[in-house]
Model the fold of this input.
Amino acid sequence: MTRAASWAILLLGITYFVLPLLGMVEFSLSMRRGEYSFDAYAAVLADPQFRQTFSYSVVMALLTIVFGILLVVPTAFWVRLKLPRLRPVVEFVTLLPLVIPAIVTVFGYIRLYNTSSWLPLTGTIFGTNLLLMFGYAMLSLPYMYRAVDTGLRTIDVATLTEAAQSLGAGWVTIIVKLILPNVLVAVLSGSFVTFAIVMGEFTMAALLNRPAFGPYLQLMGANKAYEPFALATIAFIITWACMGLIQLVTRFTKHDKAGR
Amino acid sequence: MTDLTSPPPKRRWHPSLTWLGLLPFALFILLFLVLPTMKIVIGAFQRADGSFTFENIAGLFTASILSSYWISIKISVASSAFGCLIGFLMAAAMVLGGLPRGIRSPLMTFSGVASNFAGVPLAFAFLATLGPLGLVTMFLRTEFGINLRAMGFNILSFWGLTITYLFFQIPLMILIITPALDGLKREWREAASCLGASGAQYWRIVALPILFPTILGTFALLFANAFGAVATAIALTGSSLNIVPIMLFAQIRGDVLGNPHLGYAMAFGMILVTGLANVVYIVLRIRSERWLK
Done:
């Protein structure tokens, strides 16, 4: 491939990716006729519904991250240490949420945990929130598990555990004080992806009727002219920030290791 | 896990205790993935009174549902084919095209962002660009007198949705194919040219056959990805385009098909299509790993 052709392909590709972002930002700034302004953003920020749905999604994202860490770190650690033969199986299972579309999973939730079932989670607001959090955790499981498992690969789990045990540490101490700090970067990467996924998620929240940011975006899109584009820009910045932070923490540790 | 702390387990005597560590994870998967999916699959083969039937599956073969599957499949095939092609070309330009190495890291980071930037905001971005009042639409009309609408282009259509889906399909392809392109050994190319192969021959006879499983596997992955995408489609088209995820969404919300078990059957059909695509992906992935180590 010649260099000129490479440049041409790359520039065409970049144009395709930049134009929609440009269009989105341009639209979000043109609420005032004839000049650019931040009016749409002001309108969005002043909307109490924006604040409610946004903070709801932030809280849900944080809860999902905490739950995800509590579930994934001990599991990945245990599989590496005691059940290495099961590793491919567990890894395959963690990829299943990518195979089964979210709309199907949440359909199952609605039918399985309705008010007349054995576990009526959708009967109460708390129960529905809990169910939504489990759904989010399921959506982010492939990313969280992969990140943590890759992190565990870089440390000698068996030796560290034996050393800790001979010093009298219990399992909880080992996981909290030994494993977690060692895979912190991986856990953070997984957490940022989870945050980005939860903030933008639409299907599950909409079908479970919870006031999250995604359904609010869609509602605004159907009813307002300029505000949706301001919201979309905000959503894009959140995604960027999350991915940027992953790069940052990964790079930070690389320097850390090079210094030793 | 607390019961494992003391006394230290002697593994030979309590083999079952080791499995206990997987219990929380297994329970989570069972309750929030396996059982809900089973509920859908079983429901697809049940009447309202719970008796076994093929009526729901047969009910899928009506004109409106079949056409929704057909449109969904067409959009998924088109967006994954173009996604693979363009993603491959961009990755090849980046890895093999002699471009400065500084381009690589930002492009990969951007791919990571863009492949995660799906859903409702993506739909808005394309509405603002190719919609009736969008940036590109207006620019073409005022500067060149080209009226996209009059030419039959509509963002709320097959091609509109396909172009929009490409925004997350191309980056995904770039992310997956770049390591594979890195795995092409320089020696292969040198050996080929020693034997007198031209650049085109090298690609046709050596490189593409090696990359083929990866490319086809990624195609399957992208296909499943597009087939299950709900939010972008709903935010972009409302309910004007009759594709499977939109129909299923409406069915779950308000039983528009008038038969709850037909909804199960539709969802089952979705699992079947995405499941099949993923089986293809996994099989081809295993094949491709033989060469690209």
In short: Chain A has a mean pLDDT of 88. The longest helix of chain A spans residues 48-81. The CA atoms of residues 22 and 184 of chain A lie 36 Å apart.
